[in-house]
Amino acid sequence: MNRIGVIVLNVAVALYLFANGILGFSDKLGDKLFGGGAFRMMANTIFSGDLVNVVTIILSICGIVAGALMLLTLLKIEVPATDMILVVFIIVWLVCIVIIDIINPLSSNTKVKFLDYLIQLSIHLMVLGALVTSTKRFG
Fold first, then answer.
1. Is 50 exceeded by the pLDDT of residue 30?
2. Which of 7, 40, 1, 43 is nearest to 24 (CA)?
3. Does any domain span residue 121?
4. In contact, 9 and 131? CB cutoff 8 Å
């Protein structure tokens, strides 16, 4: 695979995870499109009340850590448990994709716009692909 393309993809996904992690700490940041980020959207789909905030904060911390680990992997800096942490986050991200892109549109009373759905799904799949390629086990 083209090394420059892998670098650009990993940097972009690391920034995406950082931004979603930061947005997850406050739903007042961002506009209607990004308010609360993907992690708050996932937590809102499953939980209600104060549990949404707790799950969002946990997922946001995981997202920030995964983004940092992706950058460290890209820079060839060895962290002892990098692969294991990234594999765990790959599983979390797969659950996120199932919840946000499959369960949420099916259980929602509002009509889902097809092109908006495809954009969201493609972003989530790109993140998954970059996470997979950044691990030694799968990449």
1. no
2. 40
3. yes
4. no
